[in-house]
TrEMBL record:
<dbReference type="InterPro" id="IPR024372">
    <property type="entry name" value="Ecm29_N"/>
</dbReference>
<dbReference type="InterPro" id="IPR016024">
    <property type="entry name" value="ARM-type_fold"/>
</dbReference>
<feature type="domain" description="Proteasome component Ecm29 N-terminal">
    <location>
        <begin position="10"/>
        <end position="509"/>
    </location>
</feature>
<dbReference type="Pfam" id="PF23731">
    <property type="entry name" value="ARM_ECM29_C"/>
</dbReference>
<dbReference type="GO" id="GO:0005737">
    <property type="term" value="C:cytoplasm"/>
</dbReference>
<dbReference type="GO" id="GO:0005634">
    <property type="term" value="C:nucleus"/>
</dbReference>
<feature type="domain" description="Proteasome adapter and scaffold protein ECM29 HEAT-repeat">
    <location>
        <begin position="1350"/>
        <end position="1511"/>
    </location>
</feature>
<dbReference type="GO" id="GO:0000502">
    <property type="term" value="C:proteasome complex"/>
</dbReference>
<keyword id="KW-0647">Proteasome</keyword>
<keyword id="KW-0677">Repeat</keyword>
<dbReference type="Pfam" id="PF24492">
    <property type="entry name" value="HEAT_ECM29"/>
</dbReference>
<dbReference type="GO" id="GO:0043248">
    <property type="term" value="P:proteasome assembly"/>
</dbReference>
<dbReference type="GO" id="GO:0060090">
    <property type="term" value="F:molecular adaptor activity"/>
</dbReference>
<dbReference type="InterPro" id="IPR011989">
    <property type="entry name" value="ARM-like"/>
</dbReference>
<dbReference type="Pfam" id="PF13001">
    <property type="entry name" value="ECM29_N"/>
</dbReference>
<dbReference type="GO" id="GO:0036503">
    <property type="term" value="P:ERAD pathway"/>
</dbReference>
<dbReference type="InterPro" id="IPR055443">
    <property type="entry name" value="HEAT_ECM29"/>
</dbReference>
Length: 1934
């Protein structure tokens, strides 16, 4: 076509548009021509285009004048996106698209959305503003999109569309409305956006959402709804889309202006699946949002950072991303912005610092090194700025600063080089303790400990190391304990153990007042066994240490404090405490160095437990300890010329307490003296000589209040005197004789004098010390003399000898005096100690034997007498020492002590051990370790005693053993049997190499075997220990005999199985020995006493178990090794019992047991968990002794051919055997075996590798549940513990880790595959309640913890959890269900409580958790299970839980439910009629959630079913479920209701239900009805009126009265609806027609009249029934509506029908109950009011008759206004009185209304009516009077209007006015009721009208004048009325 033709065409179109005057014409032109015109523009020539533009401008003007014109939306969109043009044509298209969307229908809006989304990403940026405006317009103008609509968008198939939508949504969520302000210049840009993006979003601020907050809110809600939908964005979409969704919803959740948007955003975020925080695109996007856009040439294109609220949430994601931590420098910028940006908040700063800590902790090493300077700057700036803030310190500031300090510490740990040789940061951290609050100090401490690995003194320079030590020592003086703690940690960790300065700081820490610091200091000083055995070079050099501590100790001795005076009270350190700690540490170093040297030289093999003494402070108690000390002291002494340099300093330091009054504390002094004594005893003799000159200091300590100090002082003096004497005599120095004969003798004389002084309280300690020292010095001097081998005279020391003899006599006399009761207790003890020391070498002089016998007699008397424990102990020591010096008296000692043993009480059991020690010491002499360990002299005892006195006292030993075997062991006295066992043990323990014991071993074995069955546990244990030692002392043959004799005893003694072949003779010899020495005439073992406790009640199976274990090993000889290792008695752990350890036999036991380990370990392991505490403890002792503590669960393994030791994973090496043993034991008949097997299995499983457990897991659970239901309570408890342990392990194994691991996933899945089916199939359904409860608890834990591992079991677990809701419901709830009435609680309340418990129950929570892992395949398996529960589930909780499960599924997994929605709804519909109201409501809610997923046919079937339920259950509350379902449908998917306006269950049924008699039932229907009205509007009445009438007309004439009432109410409502619709239809019609000349409105009226009126008339006739008045009301309403509308219809018989209705009402008001008649009259009033009816003549008679009945009924009002009755005694009449009065007043009201509509009133009728009303107004009650007066006024006015009397005189007026005036006067005087006076005034006004009318007549007579005068008088009464409204109205009448 040519341009001229195109121009001609355009001109014609212009003319057509110009001539279009109506909307219809313009609509037709626009629809047909607009799009072709725009398309023409694209191909038109240059001359045509201006014409087209002009035409488009004309069209725009037309459209502005006709806004109702709808543009072709979809056509415009197709045209716009079908081409790629730009320019004018495309601009016009986009403009018209926006205009079209502003007026488009909702269907077009929804259809436009996907087209706009697809067009935005394909169009240039210049068009985006219009397109985005169009998209947003479509979104905000339509209602919330349904799932079907969102599914039609097909975003899953077009990721670009999805990305466009999500990105636009995110940006809009950041936008806020902009208030227009002409003076503000450019509008502000929202945070997170750039200026250009904001213009795009708001169409350059022209869009309504740019300024209208309500529009913006609606648009945001729509976008949240769409973006948060799993339907629009299914899971299978690209992860990047879901990441952008998450960011968009995150922005929505932070909306500060619209709370609803924020709440919905939060909910949508919760429903989203977690995104991958390690996604590069997500992390990059978060950084961009947080930091804003990068630099650009266009400033309007740079995005601003998001708001602080959004930043806060973004930090939450960054703080969990490893990729974010590795993105430097972005994370540094984020931290900087969080901490220091202008809009930052306290929470944002806290999270920013937390993110910095995360980044520092998780960033790659090379990156954190690069970022160290930046990180440090951020931390320091944060600390400095928060410190300089003037605001008061708050909790948020504390958190921020604490995190900063922790970050600083972590940075130092990650970058050690950064702080290695720079103490500045460390010093700042320590100094911060003093300036920061208490809450921050803990973080500083954590930070310091975090940076601790960065400081290693070995990598520091010497200067830095010294500075660090100074800093740490300074911090130890701090008053803040965290500073002291951290300083000590640095001293321990930063320096090697060999650094003495660091150890010195630990010594200072021991003096701290805080227990945790003291404990830390001890650990820093503790010397580890590995250091001694493997790394002895790490020990400090002893010589360097002694120099160091001498310097420190010198400051103490000089009085200068080690710590500053200001620090002492705060740190709690004192010189005394530091001094003691210093001594302990150096002494430990001495022992450690000695052990290391011995190991290196001699190849010593020791265990860790053998080296515990190194860190102890007790006296040396073993040969190894003494030898270690001796070696170390020898090292210190070295060459003779170095003695003064090293040994003497240690001696001086240790002895500093003797000369310093500050160190006179008894505890410190005793420690000092003990260490001095060790040096003097084990060191070189020169040390004792050097110390001799300090003896005066020792004399000064004699008066100490501590007896221990006095003894140590005496022992030191004894050593130094003995060594000095030896040295002087061996040197041959004659000058020394004088010294000894005079000076020393003088010193002894002073001691003798002090000892003989009268006892005084003040001198008591001094005298005691003098006595003790005197005895020890004498012992030392005599020992030295015996070493010299010469007499005193030969030595030239006769004077000294004389003094010694005098001292000896004094001591003997003192002991004799001590035996009497007159001597003070402490003095008596001192004399005994001194006498014992003197007796050790034998008495001097010719009377030696006599003195010994005399002293022995004295000691014996003290033992037999009533001595105190202290005196008894001292006497025991005395007699022991006497025999030590006089071996011939050993037999006497045995006899004496054996006699005294029976007097020991239960509380004095220690005396048995002390007596045993005394006997072993005295008889074993220097073959006894007790004697050798107490030897204090630096020369050997052989040199003192010689061969004769050095050996053991054989005769005494024989006597002792004879006494034990023949007397004590068989005694009936428990104390004597205990003594037999303890003495035997003491002897064999302390004298292991004594030859005299060999011949007694068999008999001792027999005795101890017998005592194993003693009632005393102590006796049993001691006998057990002794047996083990005896066994080791025997030769091979004897050991074999011992084994079988012991087995024979426990097995019966004669059973051949207990003998071994070939040794019958040996066994027989043993049996004969037993009979000869023990049994006599008594049985060997009493069966009833075997294994019984002292009270004889409980059975002790320890030894039976031990022998059973040995028998299982097929080597009975192991029983002795086991006995040696087993102990459990509390007494055994006491002070005395502890001396008898088993360290010396462990190695032997290990060697003997090694071949049987493979067989023994499983059984031994089980026995360590035995039910008997005794057996358990014994077996644990065996286990720990053989395998080492902790061997049951370690990480290393030993070779198979070696014996497992400490550190070997014994349990894992023997896993299969142990598991088999435990599982087999759990099924045994004996309950103890079952219990021990269960406990052992629990111990084995705890912490085990799941790969080891899985093969046995099914059996383990089976047996665990079996013992959990055991008949024995203790076994059940063990089973519960076992199950708890296994459950904990199972949850741990099956918890997914943050870092995926294929191997771990396989292990977890393997465990789940076993555990879950077992729990579901056997545990949850178990008959045992405990098993059920436990299984359910574990199942819930797995649901919460196991996550994806449970996917295959989701259906099974869900079903069981739902069913368990009923199974596990409390029995109390079931009881209350049947007894709710008697408990004062309704059934509904009880059910509400039960359902509330279901919702909050752990099972329901487990269901909600497990459903997160539902997949399509498992959903298919789950639905049949849910259907089964819905149809056949037992119990309210299970069914309620099932309903809730369906709801949860619909909310969280809509797409999974959709294919099965119909099946589930069908199942639920069959359960809607159950009895529980709340359960019905739950089912209704479930249907509501699934309704949007149903097909239209299924919805129709559901509605039909609801109608059936309603009418089938009409007499029950169950019918309410139909309304509940409909209410849910109205809320969840209203469009589905609107799709079904007709048919069963639809509009007619819903409307019918709205008028149900139950308000609760009706509410649900009303909600659904509102949706019908909103969806269909007026068309519902016009199109569905017949459908609406279906239900009520069906039931209006039925037999069911409630349905008839309900039908009547519905018909009345329909009538009102028709009337409203008709009224609305009369307004605003385009043609201006009304209902009178239009057939549209009357059609509905005619339909109503034709269908409803006949049925209502029919229903109104016949007999009366309760509720019939509602039918009358509906009849009146319908009649009124139809009558008014059809009044002008000539074909209508409405007038006749109205009269018929009036007749019906007239009939009904005359009969029936008063209330019914009154309702009939009221309906009549309604009919008269709404219709033009003149029926006064017809109804007046009836109504007046009712009024006249007032007099007949005797109703009157007295003067006071109260009602009177002539028959007051009739109660029935009195009850009916109010109803009668209301009936009369209503009748008068009906009469008044009838008068108002009457057009023909006869005179006689008027007169009669006036008389009746006047009478009622005069005598009736107030309401009757008011009605009568008002009706009277109406009557008078009607008479005036009908012109009665106008043509005649007053006599012709039908009503006599005078009586009426009398009534008015009477009423005017009424003082009680204002309403009466008001009605009377109205009547007066009508009367005056009559009078005026009569007066105006030409025939007025005197009667009228009289009326006028009377009326004036009455008016005067009203003028005086106190009520203003009445008086004012009266004035108007004038």
């Amino acid at each position: 076509m040519t341009d001229s033709a195109d121009i001609e065409l355009i001109e014609s179109l212009r003319l057509r548009f110009a001539l279009a005057s109506s909307t219809e014409q313009l609509q037709k032109l626009v629809t047909g021509l607009l799009v072709p015109l725009l398309d023409k523009f694209d191909i038109a020539g240059a001359a045509v285009r201006p014409k087209i533009i002009g035409l488009l401008g004309q069209i725009n003007k037309k459209l502005k004048g006709h806004p109702e014109v709808i543009l072709p939306t979809i056509s415009l969109l197709d045209s716009a996106f079908g081409k790629n043009e730009s320019g004018f044509a495309q601009g016009f298209r986009l403009m018209y698209i926006l205009m079209a969307l502003e007026h488009a229908a909702e269907s077009d809006l929804i259809a436009a959305i996907p087209l706009l989304l697809g067009g935005i990403h394909t169009r240039p940026a210049s068009q985006h503003a219009n397109l985005v405006a169009s998209l947003f317009t479509a979104l905000w103008r339509c209602s919330l999109l349904s799932e079907d609509h969102m599914r039609e968008f097909k975003l899953a198939n077009d990721s670009q569309k999805a990305e466009v939508l999500v990105t636009l949504a995110r940006d809009l969520f950041l936008f806020k409305t902009i208030v227009a302000n002409a003076d503000s210049g450019a509008p502000p840009v929202a945070m997170g956006l750039c200026a250009d993006r904001q213009k795009t979003l708001t169409n350059d601020l022209k869009a309504p959402w740019a300024s209208d907050s309500s529009v913006l809110q609606k648009l945001k809600l729509q976008l949240v709804h769409v973006v948060g939908s799993g339907v629009a964005f299914p899971t299978e979409m690209q992860p990047q889309i879901h990441e952008q969704r998450m960011l968009a919803l995150l922005c929505a959740s932070c909306d500060a202006y619209f709370q609803e948007v924020a709440d919905r955003g939060k909910d949508a975020l919760k429903r989203m699946r977690p995104v991958d925080l390690e996604s590069p695109t997500l992390v990059r996007a978060i950084f961009v949002m947080f930091l804003g856009g990068t630099q650009s040439e266009n400033i309007n294109d740079i995005r601003l950072p998001v708001t602080a609220a959004v930043r806060l949430k973004l930090l939450g994601y960054l703080g969990r991303s490893l990729l974010a931590a590795g993105s430097y420098p972005q994370w540094a910028r984020v931290v900087s912005e969080s901490l220091f940006s202008v809009g930052s908040t306290a929470k944002l700063r806290q999270h920013g610092m937390s993110f910095l800590l995360w980044a520092i902790s998780k960033a790659p090493t090379d990156q954190i090194i690069q970022a160290s300077s930046t990180s440090l700057d951020l931390i320091q700036r944060s600390l400095s700025e928060s410190a300089s803030s003037s605001a008061a310190t708050s909790l948020s500031d504390d958190i921020l600063r604490g995190s900063a300090y922790l970050a600083l510490g972590t940075l130092a740990r990650r970058v050690p080089a950064f702080t290695q040789n720079n103490l500045e940061h460390l010093q700042e951290m320590f100094e911060a303790f003093a300036t920061e609050t208490t809450g921050v100090r803990l973080s500083i401490q954590e930070g310091l400990l975090a940076m601790l690995p960065a400081y290693d003194s070995r990598k520091m320079t010497e200067m830095i190391r010294e500075q660090l030590l100074m800093l740490l020592q300074k911090q130890l003086e701090s008053t803040i304990y965290q500073a002291r703690y951290c300083a000590l940690r640095y001293a321990i960790s930063a320096f090697p153990f060999s650094e003495i300065n660091a150890r010195w700081l630990c010594i200072l820490g021991l003096a701290d007042t805080r227990p945790e610091i003291q404990q830390l200091a001890r650990s820093g000083l503790a010397i580890q066994p590995s250091t001694i055995l493997d790394h002895s070079s790490n020990l400090p050099d002893l010589r360097e240490v002694i120099v160091f501590i001498r310097q420190k100790a010198g400051r103490i001795v000089d009085g200068s404090s080690i710590l500053s005076s200001s620090a002492k009270p705060q740190a709690g350190a004192t010189s005394l405490q530091v001094y003691g700690s210093m001594l302990d540490f150096f002494r430990s170093l001495l022992l450690a160095r000695g052990v290391a040297a011995i190991k290196e030289k001699d190849g010593l093999v020791v265990d860790d437990s053998d080296l515990e003494f190194v860190n102890g402070c007790s006296a040396l108690a073993s040969e190894l300890q003494r030898k270690s000390m001796r070696v170390s002291l020898a090292y210190l002494g070295g060459q003779s010329d170095t003695l003064d340099s090293f040994v003497l300093p240690w001696l001086e330091v240790a002895g500093a307490g003797l000369s310093d009054a500050q160190l006179s504390n008894p505890e410190i002094l005793s420690k000092s003296l003990m260490y001095v004594l060790e040096v003097l005893s084990l060191g070189p003799r020169e040390a004792a000589l050097l110390f001799f000159d300090k003896r005066e200091l020792l004399f000064m300590r004699l008066a100490s209040h501590s007896f221990e100090v006095q003894l140590l002082v005496a022992q030191v003096q004894s050593v130094v005197y003995a060594v000095k004497l030896l040295a002087d005599m061996q040197s041959g120095d004659g000058a020394s004789l004088s010294f000894w004969n005079h000076s020393v003798a003088g010193e002894l004389d002073k001691l003798i004098a002090n000892a003989q002084d009268p006892t005084q309280p003040k001198l008591l300690d001094s005298k005691q010390g003098s006595i003790v020292m005197l005895g020890h010095i004498l012992y030392g001097l005599w020992a030295a003399q015996m070493v010299l081998g010469k007499s005193w005279a030969e030595l030239g020391l006769a004077p000294l000898s004389s003094t010694l003899m005098d001292a000896q006599c004094v001591i003997i006399d003192g002991v004799a005096a001590a035996a009497s009761s007159t001597t003070h207790l402490t003095i008596a003890v001192a004399w005994c100690i001194a006498a014992g020391e003197v007796s050790k070498t034998g008495y001097a002089g010719d009377a030696q034997q006599n003195l010994a016998a005399q002293t022995m007699a004295i000691g014996t008397s003290m033992l037999k007498g009533d001595s105190t424990p202290r005196v008894y102990d001292a006497a025991l020591t005395l007699v022991s020492d006497i025999v030590l010096g006089n071996p011939d008296m050993g037999v006497d000692l045995v006899d004496t002590l054996a006699t005294a043993v029976g007097s020991v009480t239960k509380k004095q059991l220690d005396m048995h051990f002390k007596t045993g020690e005394a006997l072993a010491s005295a008889l074993g002499r220097f073959s006894c370790t007790l004697v050798t360990m107490n030897w204090v002299f630096p020369f050997e005892p052989e040199a003192v005693y010689g061969d004769r006195k050095f050996g053991a006292c054989v005769s005494g030993i024989d006597e002792l053993l004879k006494t034990i075997t023949t007397k004590l062991a068989k005694s009936s006295n428990v104390q004597e049997r205990q003594a037999a066992a303890i003495w035997t043990l003491t002897l064999v323990q302390s004298c292991p190499g004594l030859d005299a014991l060999d011949s007694w071993l068999a008999r001792l074995h027999a005795c101890m075997s017998m005592l194993l069955s003693d009632r005393s546990e102590l006796t049993q244990e001691v006998a057990s220990r002794a047996l083990g030692l005896i066994y080791n002392m025997g030769d091979a043959s004897l050991r074999e005999d011992m084994v079988y004799s012991l087995i024979s005893l426990f097995g019966g003694g004669t059973n051949g199985s207990s003998r071994r072949p070939g040794v019958d003779g040996a066994v027989g010899n043993v049996q004969q020995a037993l009979q000869r020495h023990i049994q006599s005439n008594e049985p060997l073992l009493e069966q009833e006493s075997l294994g019984q406790t002292p009270d004889g009640h409980s059975v002790n199976t320890t030894y039976k178990s031990i022998m059973s274990l040995a028998s299982d090993m097929q080597n009975p000889s192991l029983v002795y090794q086991f006995m040696q290792l087993a102990t459990h008695t509390a007494m055994w752990n006491s002070r005395c019992g502890a001396a008898y350890g088993v360290a010396n036999i462990i190695e032997q036991a290990r060697g003997a047991i090694q071949p049987y380990m493979e067989t023994m370990i499983p059984k031994l392991y089980r026995y360590t968990f035995d039910s008997s505490p005794q057996t358990q403890t014994a077996m644990k002792s065996i286990w720990n002794a053989l395998l080492g503590p902790g061997s049951s669960r370690t990480t290393t393994t030993a070779p198979e051919d070696e014996l497992p030791t400490n550190g070997a994973n014994v349990v894992e090496r023997h896993w299969d055997a142990i598991l088999e043993e435990c599982l087999t034991s759990m099924g045994q008949r004996e309950w103890k075996t079952r219990e021990s097997g269960c406990n052992a299995l629990a111990g084995a499983v705890s912490g085990a590798d799941p790969e080891l457990v899985v093969p046995y897991l099914d059996r383990i659970w089976k047996m665990s549940f079996r013992v959990m239901d055991d008949i024995k309570s203790s076994v059940r408890e063990s089973g519960l513990k076992m199950c708890q342990s296994l459950a904990t392990a199972t949850v741990t194994w099956c918890t997914p880790q943050s870092t995926p691991s294929t191997s771990r996933d396989k292990q977890a899945q393997a465990v789940i595959d076993v555990v879950v089916p077992f729990l579901v199939d056997k545990g949850v359904v178990s008959d045992a309640e405990d098993v059920r409860n436990f299984s359910m608890g574990l199942l819930l834990k797995l649901c919460k913890a196991s996550g994806r591992y449970l996917e295959p079991f989701v259906p099974t677990i869900t079903e069981k959890l739902i069913e368990s809701l009923s199974d596990m419901e409390s029995q109390a709830a079931n009881y209350m269900t049947f007894h709710a009435g008697g408990s004062g609680i309704s059934q509904d309340q009880l059910e509400s409580l039960r359902l509330g418990a279901v919702k909050s129950s752990p099972m329901m929570q487990g269901v909600e958790t497990i459903l997160e892992y539902l997949t399509p395949s498992t959903m298919e398996a789950l639905v049949p299970r849910l259907q089964n529960i819905i149809r056949h589930g037992l119990g309210l909780p299970a069914r309620a839980g099932c309903a809730r499960t369906v709801v949860v599924l619909c909310v969280k997994n809509t797409e999974l439910v959709r294919p099965f929605a119909s099946a589930l709804v069908k199942a639920i519909s069959g359960s809607l009629a159950e009895n529980s109201a709340l359960q019905r409501q739950a089912w209704a809610a479930a249907i509501g959630y699934m309704a949007p997923m149903l097909s239209p046919a299924m919805v129709r079937n559901l509605l039909k079913h609801l109608e059936k339920i309603y009418f089938d259950k009409y007499e029950s509350d169950i019918r309410g479920v139909s309304g509940q379902v409909l209410e849910q449908l109205a809320q969840k998917c209203p469009e589905r209701l609107c799709e079904n306006p007709s048919g069963p269950g639809t509009t007619s049924f819903v409307l019918f239900g709205c008028w149900d008699s139950s308000e609760v039932v009706a509410n649900g229907f009303q909600s659904a009805w509102q949706e019908y009205i909103l969806g269909l509007g007026g068309a519902l009445i016009e199109e569905q009126l017949s459908e609406l009438l279906r239900q009520p007309l069906e039931h209006i004439s039925g037999e069911n009265w409630p349905r008839r009432i309900q039908s009547a109410k519905v018909l009345a409502e329909i009538a009102r609806m028709v009337e409203r619709n008709a009224r609305m239809g009369n307004v605003g019609r385009p043609d201006g027609s009304t209902s009178s000349d239009s057939n549209l409105i009357p059609f509905s009226v005619k339909t109503l009249a034709q269908m409803a009126l006949p049925e209502l008339v029919k229903a109104s006739q016949g007999r009366r029934w309760p509720g019939k008045e509602y039918v009358l009301g509906a009849l009146v309403d319908v009649c009124a509506v139809c009558g008014r509308a059809l009044a002008a219809d000539a074909d209508s018989d409405m007038q006749t029908l109205s009269v018929t209705v009036c007749d019906i009402l007239l009939r009904e008001m005359q009969h029936g109950e008063i209330s019914y008649r009154r309702e009939a009259i009221k309906h009549y009033c309604t009919l008269v009011e709404r219709m033009e009816l003149d029926v006064y003549s017809k109804v007046s008679g009836t109504l007046l008759e009712m009024v006249e009945q007032m007099n007949a009924a005797g109703l009157r009002q007295n003067a006071s206004g109260n009602t009177m009755d002539i028959d007051d005694d009739d109660d029935d009449v009195a009850m009916k009185r109010p109803q009668q009065l209301m009936l009369i007043s209503t009748a008068i009201r009906a009469l008044q209304l009838t008068l108002a509509k009457s057009h023909s009133l006869k005179s006689d009728e008027a007169a009669k009516t006036a008389d009746v009303l006047r009478c009622a107004a005069q005598t009736g009650v107030w309401n009757v009077r008011v009605a009568s007066l008002e009706c009277l006024a109406e009557l008078l006015e009607r008479c005036v209007s009908m012109e009665f009397g106008n043509s005649t005189n007053g006599q012709a007026f039908p009503i006599d006015i005078a009586p009426i005036l009398d009534v008015v006067r009477l009423s005017a005087a009424e003082g009680k009721y204002v309403s009466v006076r008001t009605a009377a005034l109205k009547t007066l006004g009508a009367t005056l009208s009559v009078i005026r009318a009569a007066s105006s007549s030409n025939n007025a007579d005197a009667r009228v004048a009289q009326w006028d005068l009377e009326a004036g008088d009455v008016r005067e009464l009203f003028l005086k009325d106190p009520v203003p409204s009445i008086s004012d109205r009266a004035k108007e009448l004038c």
